[in-house]
Amino acid sequence: MTGPAFEPIHGRYLTVDTAEGPRRLHIETAGQGRDVLLLHTAGADTRQWRHVLCDEDLCKDNCFWAFDMPWHGKSLPPDGWQEREYLLTTEGYIDTILAVMDALGLDRPILAGCSMGGRIALQLALRHPDRFAGFIAIEASDFQPAWYDIDWFDRPDAHGGQMGAALVSANISPHAPEPDRWATQWGFMQSGPGVFRGDLSFYTRDDSLVGKLGEIDTTRARVHILVGAYDLTCTPDDAERTAAAIPGATCTVMPELGHFPMSEHPTAFRPYLADALARMA
Q1: Structural contact between residues 180 and 268, judged by C-beta atoms closer than 8 angstroms
Q2: Domain ranges of the chain
Q3: 10-279: CATH homologous superfamily?
Q4: What are the pLDDT digits (tens) for 261-276?
Q5: 146 to each of 149, 193, 206, how far by Cα in Å?
Q6: Is the whole model's pTM more than 0.90, yes or no?
Q7: Which of 2, 51, 249, 268 is the most exposed place for a label (fewest CB within 10 A)?
């Protein structure tokens, strides 16, 4: 049995100004070197990235930054949240990311996002390529219509967190170690009422990338897509189709992984992330 030990992750709160008003966000960071901004999946928070932030070798050359989006994790919803419906939009998502970058003074970081974070990475590659050094879009495609009813995630007669965990369980690889599988699902069980639904509204209804992938200029910022073979939401076919439509983009299928690779099976995910970071050099 080992004694107590602090992890290298440092967490602080940061208030940023967005188009919708000030937002108090929880930020975590670890490492040194080039900046890498990490984005969590729908209905989750920065805990999905804890294994990366604790990776001593990756942190030798990379300074990782991860933040909880408003309404997520330790980032509280805005004042008056009880009187409004939370629905994430492309414009609001991009605005929040750029506001965080400005507040942290990040100059052309690498952006690595998963699921909805991967989708917004592609949007940023299209709209703001010069703000970034490269994009690692994980479990990402141009558009994925819902194969489920998102209204189930915010009903008085159903536990939204348990419904969310049940949904994501089908997207976790059978190779995932049991402790990491359940840690991944626990994050969804804790999601605030209606938050997962609001994120999925963005993910399953915003088709504004369709037909525009060819406009992404990878000579200004590289794009590499990672996808798990056991991802039912964004399948390898979806990711490869998307990469093929972006001139110069690359794609890697991860055989033993699902939709949440950094948290469901961090050991198997690590070499793919290391390779993707090397491609950004």
Answers
A1: no
A2: 10-279
A3: Alpha/Beta hydrolase fold, catalytic domain (3.40.50.1820)
A4: 999 999 999 999 999 9
A5: 7, 19, 11
A6: yes
A7: 2
